[in-house]
Amino acid sequence: MSNDLVSVIILNYNGKDMLVECLEAVFRQTYPNYEVIVVDNASTDGSEALVRARFPKARLLELEKNFGFAGGNNRGMEMAGGKYIALLNNDAVPEPQWLEELVRALEKDPTAGFCASKILVYGGEGLIDTVGDGWATVGVGFKHGKDQREGAAYSQFRYVFSACAAAALYRRSMLDEIGGFDEDFFFSCEDTDLAFRAQLAGYRCLYVPLAVVHHRVGASSRDRSFLFYMWYRNLEYAYFKNMPPALLWKYLPLHLFYMFCSLAASPLRGTTRAFLRAKLHFLLNVPKVWRKRRAIQRNRKVSISYLESIMERGYLIHRLKREFPSGRPARRM
Length: 333
Fold this sequence. Notes:
Layout lengths: L5 E7 L3 H11 L7 E7 L6 H8 L4 E4 L5 H12 L4 E6 L2 E3 L3 H11 L3 E10 L6 E3 L2 E4 L3 E4 L14 E3 L6 E5 H7 L11 H11 L3 E12 L8 H19 L2 H25 L2 H13 L1 H13 L5 H6 L5 H9 L10
Parallel strand pairs: 1-2, 1-4, 2-3, 6-12
Antiparallel strand pairs: 4-11, 5-12, 6-7, 6-11, 8-9, 10-12
Helix pairs in contact: 6-7, 7-9, 7-10
């Protein structure tokens, strides 16, 4: 394996309490050649002083305002010098060989443009957060293996649709071609959108089971209403920007039905207002989304049949069974 420089970007916003364990784990990586960039989204909890005092080897980028997950990471990528770009949440703790395994996987597979980690719930005794992310034809992203226990079924290398950007590795050359995160997403689904653009451009995503990270799921985002608002809104951005015309119109009725089911279930979650605000915001921005869509679709290099083959078809039935396990709405998202 070569010793190409890897840039590890850790985005932080008022995560001082989690940064120490995250950075200590990063500086214990077995891969020999990497730089660490901490991008701070205008924290007010003393995070910057902590990084300067305890981790002087880390490069610190202090932003003047909160640019969100998308904007903050984009600015980190701009100052990164690596052949590979690793993104890691401040609430994630990688095992020592995490980076080495991701780089090894990309170097062995020239068709892969990015890699997904095995992300376990922090302190969850093998409980899975995600083992690579998927995209359903109905127009929604999801996590493979969510809430399952790790085992043989999740110990094999395989191609997936997307990588959760809480812990992922990207070829710099791929990012230079397709662009970084869409900053209109701010946060939520921005990694799915990037993955969709990568797939359209002919880059595959490889799940690497030996690259293990322990994630404090949700620790860096605590405003539940805002989380739902961004998710409901950004799903529409990702769907209407990236689905090729043949698939967009083929699955649009299912997408609309799924949205209707989400609206019907929203009172049980207390998210009806967030849902309606999100969809209205999307409708007001359709012209902007459509301009981006035209540019993306012009650059598509893969066939419709390939794209459809890597999308999950049974997700709607699975989700309905989860929401209505016995004919009544479930209270769990």
